[in-house]
Every structure is written in structure tokens, then in C-alpha cells.
UniProtKB/TrEMBL annotation:
<dbReference type="GO" id="GO:0042147">
    <property type="term" value="P:retrograde transport, endosome to Golgi"/>
</dbReference>
<protein>
    <submittedName>
        <fullName>Vacuolar protein sorting-associated protein 53 homolog</fullName>
    </submittedName>
</protein>
<dbReference type="Pfam" id="PF16854">
    <property type="entry name" value="VPS53_C"/>
</dbReference>
<dbReference type="GO" id="GO:0000938">
    <property type="term" value="C:GARP complex"/>
</dbReference>
<dbReference type="InterPro" id="IPR038260">
    <property type="entry name" value="Vps53_C_sf"/>
</dbReference>
<feature type="region of interest" description="Disordered">
    <location>
        <begin position="87"/>
        <end position="116"/>
    </location>
</feature>
<dbReference type="InterPro" id="IPR039766">
    <property type="entry name" value="Vps53"/>
</dbReference>
<dbReference type="GO" id="GO:0005829">
    <property type="term" value="C:cytosol"/>
</dbReference>
<dbReference type="InterPro" id="IPR031745">
    <property type="entry name" value="Vps53_C"/>
</dbReference>
<feature type="domain" description="Vps53 C-terminal">
    <location>
        <begin position="2"/>
        <end position="74"/>
    </location>
</feature>
């Protein structure tokens, strides 16, 4: 809620945050909540853990899964078998969508989202 109220903090005029800002905040916080749910879930049995990851994170990939396993504090030996299981269970991308050029067509990365938020914050500061 604080993030949603951020554009009007310190302003004498109480107004609702722009819809685009609200959408970005809600999307980012929802993703963070889903990541926390996956990290806090038990990793045994591995098949259930991987299926839960795929279900909760719609833009799942092995790199993100690796980071989640690191956050869980699993040893590399445990991670390798779980990564292989994840690779097997991940839905296959449409043909031609594996190259780097297709990355620009996908949903924005968290870094791109945070960059957008920073730009928005700077814009808000200029207007205040």
C-alpha cells in the first residue's frame, strides 16, 4: 500500500496514483509474493516443488529456478537433480522463441521494471 501511495506522499493534493504506476507496482509485488511462496515451500518431494514453481511463476525458466534454489540454501548437488527435473517439466517454447532476439518480445525483466519505476519516481520528483 505504501508503494501505491508513493506518488502522493508529501503532496498537499490527495490523488490516486496513475493506472500505469499502479499496474507496475501490483505486478511486481505479485511476482515477489509468488517467489516467496516458492522459496518458503518444502522442496521434498522435488516433483511437487518443481510443479509448484511452474504453476506460481508464469514466466518460469531455469535461470530463475536456479536463483530460487540458491535462496532456499540448497547444495549444488541437490540443485543439479532439481534443475534437470525442472528442464524436463517446463513447457517447451514455441519454435523459434529460444533465440536472444525473442527476449525483447517477452515480458519485461525485473531489471527493466525497476528501471521504469525509477524513471517514474524521477518524473514525480520533478513535478513536486
Amino acid at each position: 500500500m505504501v508503494l501505491l501511495d508513493l506518488p502522493s506522499i508529501g503532496s498537499q493534493v490527495v490523488r490516486k496514483a496513475p493506472a500505469s504506476y499502479t499496474k507496475i507496482v501490483v505486478k511486481g509485488m505479485t511476482r515477489a509474493e509468488m517467489i516467496l511462496k516458492v522459496v518458503m515451500a518444502p522442496h521434498e518431494p522435488p516433483v511437487v516443488f518443481v510443479d509448484n514453481y511452474i504453476k506460481l511463476l508464469t514466466d518460469c525458466n531455469t535461470e530463475t529456478f536456479q536463483k530460487i534454489l540458491d535462496m532456499k540454501g540448497l547444495k549444488r548437488s541437490e540443485q543439479s537433480s532439481m534443475l534437470e527435473l525442472c528442464r524436463q517439466r517446463l513447457p517447451t517454447p514455441p519454435s523459434g522463441a529460444e533465440g536472444p532476439s525473442s527476449l525483447s518480445l517477452m515480458a519485461p525483466t525485473p531489471e527493466q521494471e525497476s528501471s521504469r519505476i525509477r524513471k517514474l519516481e524521477k518524473l514525480i520528483k520533478k513535478r513536486l
